[in-house]
């Protein structure tokens, strides 16, 4: 088996983005609402995102810069109002997630541009998205500049979790297929949840038979 190897230092920025973002897939999407000091709401999606801890519940996502080097509105807002709401978007919301990725001026309300309904949060100032199946109200613990590059890692503590009442739960395990979370892939592509595999069952089969599952 042969492989092609790449040195990041020899690739143009766009080439590195194409290669990296098409390999690190699927990436969960954090749909984040923030608020400026002037009470202007902002909504943006970030796919460099994941959970950081369960006890206490922490989330983390990375904010880059605009192509011209300007700081993104989300980071400016978090510096002014260190709170946010992180939403899980489903496949019915892909178009609106993409719309909120447009580089709007700071005074533009992305809720209005994407025709989304704001809901008051319980513990933080930024609004929730009524159409999103789940929302996590968070306070910023740290805005950590990456050791190299221009991105900033946001670490937030979850203060309140909201899950749509019609989503099936089993002892607080939310039904993943019903949640229908989207993910980011390469280019402008999004992933929809498909089939799932029981890792324990496959591991036990492999230990018995010594061959990987071919399905």
Name its key features.
alpha+beta; 215 residues; seven-stranded antiparallel beta sheet; 31% strand; globular; Pnp Oxidase, Chain A; 14 strands; three-stranded antiparallel beta sheet
What does this structure look like?
This protein is an alpha+beta fold. It has a single domain (8-209), classed as Pnp Oxidase, Chain A, CATH 2.30.110. The protein is built from six helices and 14 strands. The protein has a seven-stranded antiparallel beta sheet, with helices on one face. Strands 1-13-14 form a three-stranded antiparallel beta sheet, with no helix packed on it. Strands 7-8 form a two-stranded antiparallel ribbon. It is globular, with a radius of gyration of 19 Å. It starts with 12 loop residues before the first helix and ends in a 6-residue tail after the last helix.
What would you say about this model in short?
With 215 residues, the chain is α+β, with helices and mostly antiparallel strands. It has six helices and 14 strands.
CA-to-CA gap between the ends?
A: 22 Å
Name given to the CATH homologous superfamily = Electron Transport, Fmn-binding Protein, Chain A
CATH topology: Pnp Oxidase, Chain A
Shape: globular
Strand arrangement within the widest β-sheet reads 3-2-6-9-10-5-4
The overall number of domains is 1
* Percent of residues in beta strands: 25-35%
Largest sheet: 7 strands, antiparallel
Number of H- or I-type helical stretches? 6
Question: Which whole number gives the mean pLDDT?
Answer: 95
* Radius of gyration (Å): 19 Å
What structural class do the secondary elements suggest?
Answer: alpha+beta
